[in-house]
Predict the structure.
Amino acid sequence: MTSHKATIAVIGGTGALGQGLARRLAAAGHPLIIGSRTVEKAREAAVRIPAPAGCERPRGATNADAAGAAQIVLVTVPWGSQAGILDEIRPHVAGKLVIDTTVPLVPPKVARAQLPPEGSAALVAQKRLGEGVRVVSAFHNVAAHKLQKDEPIDCDILVFGDDPQDRETAIRVVAAAGLRGIHAGPLANSAAAEALTSVLIGINRNYKADGAGIRITGIATS
Amino acid sequence: MTSHKATIAVIGGTGALGQGLARRLAAAGHPLIIGSRTVEKAREAAVRIPAPAGCERPRGATNADAAGAAQIVLVTVPWGSQAGILDEIRPHVAGKLVIDTTVPLVPPKVARAQLPPEGSAALVAQKRLGEGVRVVSAFHNVAAHKLQKDEPIDCDILVFGDDPQDRETAIRVVAAAGLRGIHAGPLANSAAAEALTSVLIGINRNYKADGAGIRITGIATS
């Protein structure tokens, strides 16, 4: 370890959300491993991410290798790929914190909430990875393209998980990405944020906005 | 008609949410009928609601009579009572706009999202009332006790409905109650706001807040 900060794997790190989060977490000094289906694509994505002076550069790896080498595993993949990619990383995440960001969008009607029979993509992830893996969910409602810029983002991040300590760890990752994370209850509550993404997509269309978000009002956070 | 404003029935108008909305809608000059299981209880609730000078006073009626006499029907009842009360008003709401506020909270775990198999309480309401009734849903995330005061409330109201015109009408009712209503897509999307209420209940506990709410950021509304 060349850093006291947790090494984070960004699974699906070649996508817009993964790239945006990777940029911000690298800037905050987290050692990063970008995961993708192939090492080549992962490396191409990794070299595009700047690292602060004195910090190790992000590197690329297969999703499985990235998950295996990291302490915290951030899953940023589309709903249609979630099951397959979780199967790839499952052998490598026992006991680790997995932050799932999957929103169950079903094209073409992505502005219509279509939650899975299990209740939420987060519950699907927990079921697929098994009880030995500490799953939390977060980052459902932030526009990926806003993460790619250095500007402040007017959006809170609801963090769901059955273990408050795991939520707290995830909230620190959220803070490293420059956002306010909020304890939003058990994994079952992830349905709220996942469905809200469809609401926000519709709001972007209706109000000609380029990245509506949410804020929780009436609370004091440090 | 002594007013150009729509007459609104507040079904379940003796509860905290109903009373809060009734106060604000009466203050905005809407003729109001407070509905309850019994006329006596409805009348007791109605006399507690002030009306502006020159406006007719809110009156009380059974839920069925209130729904029958109104142009817009606002349903503010607990999840456990929703089915029975919708059955009471069904014969009286054909072709009318029904604004359902039901949140499917299942005690004792009200801070855990427990959406019904139908997807949302709003979809349950539409199914129960039948296709001839124009159902929208709203007011899921605002703290009832804040509606009882005259102070501004830092919370947006997500409005769901399959017909944009019906949503627009509901948004005008929201504005009359002193809040910003937002087009949040089809009735299926109501799952987002309904689940979010459990999230907010948990946030109130976690952060010792007395009425957390939500704001949609990044949009311009008139």
